[in-house]
Backbone:
């Protein structure tokens, strides 16, 4: 089956990337297998990010998962909590209030495991994306004075390019494409400035410039980094709702996904992921069926295998057109076959989230399980697991 039709509407029987049998597919790695053989010290280099973190729900859940990994390798909860905040979890957003909520949620989660974490210096990696428009570049002459000429010139060149990239960054957020820089060199350059001779009006606001330079350097590094796991619930915005600057930027940089902001993030998060590692997202189901997203589907499938996908109704967020969630490995594996679940029938059918969960677990336990969605009635009571298993309908939920 070609990549072009792998997501065709209402095609759910034997949905996979080729016609090979399941027996020919390579064995799937077990949870935590990628950490086997690594020392405790190496866990800190396992990184996950949410480039549209909102109020931080995904980061908080990831915190608990990482805590289990740390504990399984012998770390105390107290040490693990600090390490997770400082080394493992990253998040970005363009909204200041969302950033504040995410930071608060993450630190409160860390305090659950380490009651003294707020009493010691702990550097988190959640950031707000800010533009560089108002930075006074004349102040750059006072930075990096103690560096040698070659290093300073290199830092100046890279920093000016970075500042150019962050012009109007408030409009674009995490979809900015940031070139990799010598971040250690830029950190050294922006950390200190020296005033030669008498003070003048030229240096007014230089402390503010320093703060902004340090912040943009950190955000730039976070955007240029590739991660083991990128997971997000991206913003939804059709092209008609984008402003002139955002619309032009998206058309130029994301031509295959310019129709909606969620599609832009589908493209972007794969670029933020290390090879043979994972992205996960929940988006509108139009991605898997509309012809306008066909080029993006082909591009997505060319970059890796979709291991699991859930096609859900309106119950998860109450979105009129439902939602779909998938996990993709950024690696093309010959003869790979994924697992896909259809957890609704009609596009506008509402199904309680707890019932969606029951249907998924039942179909996962019994791949031949079927359910008659026409019998579902949310006005009475939710599904009973014993009753569901006795249904004999034509709609199959689990597909390979």
Residues:
């Amino acid at each position: 089956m070609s990549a072009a039709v792998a997501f065709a509407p209402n095609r759910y029987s034997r949905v996979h990337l080729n016609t090979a049998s399941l027996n020919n597919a390579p064995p799937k790695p077990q949870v935590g297998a990628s950490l086997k053989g690594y020392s405790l010290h190496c866990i800190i280099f396992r990184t996950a990010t949410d480039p549209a973190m909102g109020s931080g729900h995904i980061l908080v859940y990831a915190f608990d998962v990482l805590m289990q990994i740390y504990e399984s390798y012998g770390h105390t909860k107290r040490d693990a909590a600090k390490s997770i905040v400082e080394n493992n979890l990253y998040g970005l957003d363009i909204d200041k209030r969302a950033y504040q909520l995410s930071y608060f949620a993450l630190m409160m989660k860390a305090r659950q495991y380490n009651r003294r974490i707020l009493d010691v210096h702990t550097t988190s990696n959640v950031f707000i994306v800010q533009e560089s428009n108002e930075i006074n570049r004349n102040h750059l002459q006072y930075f990096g004075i103690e560096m040698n000429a070659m290093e300073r010139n290199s830092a100046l060149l890279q920093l000016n390019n970075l500042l150019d990239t962050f012009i109007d960054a408030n409009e674009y957020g995490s979809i900015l494409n940031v070139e990799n820089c010598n971040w250690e060199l830029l950190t050294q350059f922006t950390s200190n400035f020296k005033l030669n001779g008498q003070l003048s009006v030229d240096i007014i606001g230089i402390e503010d410039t320093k703060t902004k330079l340090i912040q943009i350097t950190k955000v730039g590094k976070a955007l240029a980094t590739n991660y083991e796991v990128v997971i997000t619930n991206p913003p939804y915005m059709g092209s008609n709702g984008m402003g002139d600057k955002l619309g032009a930027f998206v058309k130029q940089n994301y031509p295959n996904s310019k129709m909606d902001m969620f599609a832009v993030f589908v493209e972007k998060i794969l670029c933020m992921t290390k090879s043979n590692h994972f992205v996960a997202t929940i988006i509108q189901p139009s991605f898997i069926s509309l012809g306008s997203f066909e080029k993006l589907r082909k591009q997505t499938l060319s970059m890796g295998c979709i291991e699991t996908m859930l096609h859900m109704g309106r119950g998860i967020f109450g979105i009129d057109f439902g939602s779909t969630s998938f996990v993709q490995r950024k690696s093309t594996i010959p003869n790979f076959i994924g697992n896909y679940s259809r957890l609704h029938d009609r596009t506008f059918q509402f199904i309680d989230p707890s019932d969606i969960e029951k249907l998924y677990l039942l179909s996962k336990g019994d791949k031949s399980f079927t359910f008659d969605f026409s019998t579902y009635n949310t006005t009475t009571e939710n599904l009973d697991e014993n009753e569901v298993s006795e249904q004999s309908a034509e709609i199959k939920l689990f597909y390979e």
Observations:
- The first helix runs from residue 57 to 72.
- The two ends are 13 Å apart (CA to CA).
